[in-house]
Amino acid sequence: MMLNGKIAVVYGGGGVLGGAAARAFARDGATVYLAGRTREKLEAVAQDITSAGGRAHVAVVDVLDEATLVRHAATVAQQAGRIDVVLNAVGFVHVQGTPLKDLSLDDFERPIRETTRAYFSIAKAVAPHLVPKSVLISLSTPGSKLAFPGVLGFGVACAGVEAMTRHLAAELGPGGVRVVCLRPDLVPETVKLGSHARQVFRPLAEAAGFTVDQIADMKMQPGSSPSLLKRFPHVEEVANTAAFVASDHAGAITGAVLNLSCGSLID
Q1: How many CB atoms sit inside 10 A of residue 226's CB?
Q2: Spatial separation of the C-alpha atoms in residues 11 and 3, rounded to whole Å
Q3: Is 113 exposed, middle or buried (0-12, 13-18, 19+ CB in 10 A)?
Q4: Tens digit of each residue's pLDDT (9 = 90 or more) over 131-158
């Protein structure tokens, strides 16, 4: 197993992508510490992991509370002895589809402020407990590079995550710690599975005369994407890539943004 004996912490572990990655980590041998704001969602993921023979622990943590993050990371390190893998899979509800003329400064700033603050605070909290060959993984989207209207704040937030990945790799690299970002495109399954994306996309769907579920169903059909593969990425593809990146097989990868967009964005 690729992650046998590893200690993995997943912030946003009750979410769709965070939970899927946590299950993949546990499947490949890691002991997983799930952290997030909603205990019921965290415990559901933990139950999946333990039912499959894995090991999982749950803690309610607000990643925007720096002091709480510091205590949580220290507690995990004290219990486990170290931290090998950290996944920042935290997502925030934000405005999409609002043009510049109608966009408030607060709606523009909020995703930037919350997303970059969470990434910074997670990195700072876990850094003292990371060991050589540890890896810090984050998530972004093609909104960081593709230009289209209605995503000003979110696009800048994604670009911030990718820039922080490069700079954190420089900060932590001398200690043997890798920092990697995964950049999937829209993953329509997440809406069907209860992601906060449902709330994000509801206004856009209703403006087009559809429900969110109808839009998700259409996006899940073959040929629905203009990408080179003519589809969007799947949850399990993102999770399995996270598990590979967390493993020593990816030991030469750092400071990188991995393109999981199915070819909607060409690097």
Answers
A1: 9
A2: 18
A3: middle
A4: 999 999 999 999 999 888 889 999 999 9
Pairing of strands 31-36, 83-88: unpaired
Please give the mean pLDDT across all residues of the chain. Answer: 92
Measure the CA angle with vertex 241, ends 266 and 113; round to 5°.
70
Q: Which two tokens stand for residue 130?
A: 């990371």
Q: Which residues have a Cβ under 8 Å from the Cβ of 74 and sit 6 or more positions away?
A: 129
Q: Which residue has the tokens 């909290």?
A: 125
**Structure confidence by residue, pLDDT tens digits, 26-85:** 999 999 999 999 999 999 999 999 999 999 999 999 999 999 999 999 999 999 999 999
Q: Give the β-pairing of 55-60 and 31-36.
A: parallel
Identity at 13, one-letter amino acid code: G
The C-alpha R_g of the chain, in whole angstroms, comes to 18
Order the strands of the 7-11 sheet from edge to edge: 55-60, 31-36, 7-11, 83-88, 130-139, 178-184, 256-260
Q: What is the pLDDT of residue 206?
A: 65
Condensed to tens digits (0 to 9), the pLDDT of residues 208-251 reads 676 767 766 776 788 888 899 999 999 999 999 999 999 999 99
* Tokens found for residue 118: 């969470």
Q: What is the DSSP string of 163-217?
A: HHHHHHHHHHGGGT-EEEEEEE---THHHHTT-THHHHHHHHHHHTT--HHHHHH
Instruction: State pTM to two decimals.
Output: 0.93
* 178, β-bridge pairs: 135
